[in-house]
Design goal:
4pyrrole_Mease_sub1, methyltransferase, 30 strands, Rossmann fold, 19 helices, 5-stranded mixed sheet, Udp-n-acetylmuramoylalanyl-d-glutamate--2,6- Diaminopimelate Ligase, Chain: A, domain 1, 4pyrrol_Mease, 4pyrrol_Methylase_sf, 623 residues, 25% strand, Nucleotidyltransferase, domain 5, binds S-adenosyl-L-homocysteine
């Protein structure tokens, strides 16, 4: 099963005809979906049988699945699901595949239910055309109702339908972003409809709606003809001090009271902070569990270092720090050396029989995503998309952020979604690329790092893992998955026949990261050992002598007529293939887009093909 489909699980698929089974059965195995068949149809491995009508069966499994795939007429599906639909934020993704498997249609819950994304992935997998009818997709804009999902933002109140429809009509919509990541703004198309900030009086721009991205709770009228929506990045850390035995209810009421008083959004809470003495405070633990909030605790030694507006000598005497609520809020909001500010100083709420709570709120510069980051190290193959594995394609499409060299990002552009953040870095900045990927994954994002060919062969996989290890990685968080790809030596070999049929090796002539003496030793050993040898990075503008040296070493051990393939830009538009021999090879263009394959002593040429016999014993048969 392709693991990158896991975020869509559980998926149910329904087939009622033999053609539908033929399409859905293999698909379900690949994506890990359950295939349901009516009891009249033959039983198949890995399928579930249902009794009675499909309508009844659907209502039984409706709420247990995040996505449904039908291979049925669109009209029939519409009638079947109509009574079960509720609203955008609850309905599962509904996808239809036609009986010939030519089209995959995103029918319902395109954004929040991720039907558009799943449609695109399945279409790639079965080589069909994805049909996505949502307006933002066609405008190449991120869906406004899923904008903050990668960053863990909470969707707040507002007229979401009206704002989406304004955007679809190309009307100007104002964006006022007070907190949270602005990465989403970096990849908007040129003609996007957003106006950032407040227009100047002299400007004749007239926005027709507004998107707030803030920690403030705003109340909007549903009927306003200036529709507004709000996203709440989770930037508020609530510091809490309380007397032993304070009830969960008092804690909850107090937080709500303070948030209301200061017009703050409960949805913007990143987590709760306190002194480590309170790590077992029952009311506090119950509150965090109920709200699914992280509880961060700090020792008095750490807390007493923090400068706070309202220190207390009495508290200091009791617990060893003059501040619990204010200091712990500031400590929790402090992230990777970026300071945090207190936005609500200490508030004390007493109840006669439920205890006493002290609350302070600090705002952190970076939002808490509440997600476990993922690093996908992806090999995209030599160039054309049909040489990329389905698993690698899915990984790229799934990621929140795609990082890679711009040429490769262009090649994979058909797999991209409008919501994705693309970070192209120059070819020389591999280490920066690796560090950036790690930083974003640690923060909770799903990051795909793209290499050409295989990512573990002179690619980014090693660099990223090395940097992770240096940063004290525990091997599990962020989660890492490596997606292999067809490497240049395989791609080049396939274009000239079967030169790699016997023992072979790869040598990169780039001495940027490897001392030239080491490379020299390996060239000598490969030549002496009669390995078929694939040369990566053979010649650059400034590094021209290494390939000459290589040829000379090989000439010491091999016949000058030994076949050599020069394959430039395999599987790309400007592909060029030359089959020549060891003696002649330097008469042709060899550059950084070329892979050189030098045959072994039994490799022979037949027209423009290069063949290395499977065994040395067959040599006599050839001759
Ligand atoms: N990770 C890549 C290799 C990167 S090193 C892989 O597994 O293929 C870069 C070198 O790979 C280039 O200098 C060239 O020698 C070779 N290369 C990469 N893509 C190629 C292609 N499409 N055709 C021929 N050679 C290629």
């Amino acid at each position: 099963m392709i693991t990158s489909f896991v975020p869509f699980h559980p998926i149910a698929a329904i087939a009622t005809t033999p053609q539908a089974i033929e399409i859905l059965h293999p698909l379900c195995q690949q994506i890990g979906a359950t295939l349901y068949l009516q009891n009249t149809v033959n039983t198949l491995e890995n399928t579930q049988i249902y009794q009675g009508s499909l309508k009844d069966h659907l209502s039984t499994i409706w709420s247990q699945n995040k996505a449904f795939i039908f291979c049925l007429a669109t009209g029939a599906v519409v009638r079947l699901i109509a009574p079960l639909l509720r609203d955008k934020s609850h309905d599962p993704a509904i996808i239809i595949i036609d009986q010939k498997g030519e089209f995959v249609i995103s029918l319902c819950s395109g954004h929040q239910g991720k039907a558009d994304q799943l449609t695109q992935l399945i279409a790639h997998l079965i080589n069909a055309k994805p049909i996505i009818t949502g307006a933002s997709n066609s405008l190449n804009l991120p869906g406004i109702d899923v904008l903050g999902v990668p960053f863990g933002w909470c969707k707040g109140q507002g007229n979401w339908t009206q704002i989406s429809s304004l955007i679809a009509q190309g009307k100007t919509v104002q964006v006022i972003q007070e907190v949270g990541s602005t990465l989403w703004q970096n990849n908007l198309p040129n003609n996007h409809p957003f106006y950032f900030g407040f227009p100047d009086i002299n400007e004749c721009i007239k926005p027709e709606g507004r998107i707030w991205i803030s920690a403030t709770q705003r109340r909007f009228s549903e009927k306003s003809n200036y529709p507004k929506v709000q996203w709440h990045p989770r930037v508020l850390w609530v510091g809490i001090g309380c007397v032993r035995g304070t009830s969960k209810n008092l804690i909850e009421r107090s937080i709500h009271q303070v948030f209301k008083q200061y017009h703050l959004a409960i949805d913007a809470i990143a987590g709760i902070a306190t002194i480590d003495l309170k790590a077992d405070e029952i009311g506090l633990i119950e509150y965090c569990q109920k709200q699914q909030l992280t509880l961060k605790t700090f020792s008095p030694n750490v807390l007493k270092m923090v400068e706070v507006p309202n220190p207390s000598a009495i508290v200091e005497e009791e617990v060893g720090t003059p501040s619990v609520a204010e200091a712990s809020a500031i400590c929790a909001a402090f992230s990777s050396e970026i300071s945090a500010s207190l936005i609500v100083s200490k508030q004390i709420i007493k109840s006669e029989n439920e205890g006493t709570v002290t609350i302070a709120i600090a705002q952190s510069k970076v939002e808490y995503t509440n997600r476990i980051g993922q690093l996908y190290l992806v090999g995209m193959g030599p160039g054309s998309l049909d040489q990329m594995t389905p698993a690698a394609k899915t990984a790229v499409n799934q990621a929140d952020v795609i990082i890679g060299y711009s040429l490769y990002l262009d090649l994979i552009s058909p797999l991209k979604r409008p919501e994705q953040i693309i970070e192209a870095l120059p070819i020389t900045q591999e280490k920066q690329r690796a560090l950036r990927a790690i930083e974003l994954a640690k923060w909770g994002l799903t990051v795909a790092v793209i290499s050409s060919g295989d990512c573990g062969i002179y690619g980014m996989a090693g660099l990223v893992l090395e940097e992770l290890q240096k940063a004290g990685w525990d091997g599990t968080i962020p989660q890492v998955e490596v997606f292999p790809g067809i490497t240049a030596l395989q791609a080049a070999a396939s274009r000239v026949g079967a030169p790699l049929m016997h023992d072979f090796c790869a040598i990169s002539l780039s001495d940027l990261l490897t001392p030239w003496e080491v490379i020299q030793k390996r060239i000598e050993a490969a030549a002496m050992g009669d390995f078929v040898t694939a040369i990566y990075n053979p010649r650059s503008h400034t590094r021209t002598e290494q390939i000459v040296y290589t040829q000379q070493v090989f000439l010491k051990y091999r016949d000058p007529q030994t076949p050599v393939a020069l394959v430039r830009s395999a599987y790309r538009k400007d592909e060029k293939i030359t089959v020549t021999c060891l003696q002649e090879m330097l008469r042709f263009t060899i550059d950084m887009l070329t892979t050189v394959i030098i045959g072994n002593s039994s490799t022979y040429r037949h027209n423009n093909w290069m063949i290395t016999p499977r065994g040395y014993n067959q040599q006599s048969e050839k001759e």
